[in-house]
Amino acid sequence: MKEFHQQSAIVTGAGQGIGYEICRQLAAGGCHVLLNDIDETLTAEASKKINAEFGNCIGLSGDASAPGFINEMVSTAVEKFGKLTIAIANAGITLFGDFFAYPKDDFYKVLHTNLGGSFFLAQAAALQMKEQKSGGSILLMSSVTGHQAHKNLAAYAMTKAALEMLAKNLVCEISEYGININAIAPGATLTERTLSDPDYMSTWSRITPMGRPAYPADVANAVLFLVSEKGRHITGQTLVIDGGWTCMSPSPY
Prior knowledge:
Blueprint: E1 8-11, H1 17-28, E2 32-37, H2 40-53, E3 57-61, H3 67-81, E4 86-89, H4 104-132, E5 136-141, H5 154-169, H6 171-174, E6 179-186, H7 200-207, H8 216-227, E7 238-241, H9 245-248
Parallel strand pairs: 1-2, 1-4, 2-3, 4-5, 5-6, 6-7
């Protein structure tokens, strides 16, 4: 019996990188997965690749920060899979900028996506899990920037620290329904986006105590543990996955 047999999940922002690897590993474990990305092409390609390897995946493209679309994801998962047992709010954006000149539009866009999308996915998923009366798991995507200052990321870092507090706060709201909620805080990770910087690998290998940045699988492995039966008694916590970087915090600059 596979670990996630008869489970069903929503993962947002999962067309590539960490989110994609989470979906891939869930599907490999027997979980039915609704894979979301705002990019239609990425959504279609990612779900096609997972289905070719494991099956168990449907793609649904749309804005994971829009409450109406969040409700659509939940209803689609329930319609296709019969229930929703796992929700992973992976979608987020990073907009760098000098604090003294940071644009208001960028500020509210970061808050809307990173906080609004995560909050309302957690809300919609918890409501569905409460109605099902069978519990479930919610996972929020924080960052090491929620723990250590990082130049030109004030707005982004603020949202990531807030997500960790959201995970703590919801313990008193959803635990009685058998729902656990946690966050993970990845550090430097090799994804399609970060690898566009030719110096990324060498820089972060030099300043990460474990000698390299994370691979998406390093992060996905932790996520799967927290949303599995093995992690059922863990809730309100944040797990940092950074090869030791936050212990010493050398700047990439």
